[in-house]
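Hi everyone,

Forwarding the result from last night's run.
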Amino acid sequence: MRIVFAGGGTGGHLYPGLAIARALVRLDARVRPFFIGARRGVERDVLPGTGFDHLLLDLHPLYRVRPWENWRTIAGLGGAWRAIGRVLAAEDARVVVGTGGYASGAALARALGGRVPIVLQEQNSLPGITTRFFARYAREIYLGYAEAAPFLRARHGAWVGETGNPIEPPPEPLPDRAAARRAWGFPDEGGVVVLVFGGSQGARPLNEAVASWVQGGIPGGVHLIWGTGRPWYDRFAALESARVRVRAYLSPIADAYAAADLAVTRAGALTLAELCAWGIPSILVPLPTAAADHQTANARALAAAGAATVLPQSQLAAHRLDVEVGAVARDPAALRSRATAARARGRPGAAAQIAERILRVASAGRRID
């Protein structure tokens, strides 16, 4: 049973598809996921190591700032249309799953042209342009945030629901917190362990603020796990100490999640899904240049739920980190309350739930009405 995934360009659009694909294979060994993505996206480096069949095409985003370069987008779509048509026909695709980003639009459109059912997974509280456009044609739409629903015009009879974002779920039961702390060289109990990271490549404003904070002296009882990102590690590695662990890349990040009481991060949808699944409250610094400022929308949704504090990048500084983290460190009851709120927003079983629904769509019949 071939199920095609279309999405990528960034990890935020690719990794949800991978989580769903793995859940599908676990549920039904007959499923054969197939990924369609862009040669210029993160999928170029990630998909070859997954073991899933895939096709990378010369796809381009809309060049909003440099519109004269949109000839690349148009030319890429022409070649992609034919290649995707051959894949859908040869593979007898049952469903096409769109996970967003410019790499998904061509495949979703071609699926509709071939009368193959489509379903969508939207990660953010403010839906992207691809999801907004194709929502009117989708059989089902799986939302990371219920707040996204009012922005979508779904087709009559379509299922639209908050499943949470598909991630690799935390282990059950969760790792022992004292042992996790000990592995980082921190005391078994007391104080707070703060996890700071800005994605796999790091975030310069976040790193610079944390560096100033560490150099000025972090509050007593605070222990820090700091993922700088590989491009920044050499610059900040010397700030390692008994209470500050500096790493270029947190892999596996589960080791850090298991020890953390609080996180200071960007507000990407998958990062927030993982933090909530682990029950970790957060101080969120949204990326101000994210498309349609969707990270701010994500952060505000968690703040409204009582699971996070929003710290705009324009206000990010060592003294603000000192105030925000220090307040939490001095109020264990507030920290526990935030952790409970984060856990309430967590959907660790999202990938399995979505996979079950996709299998039902695939079994209902290949061609759309």
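The longest strand covers residues 32-38.

Cheers,
N.
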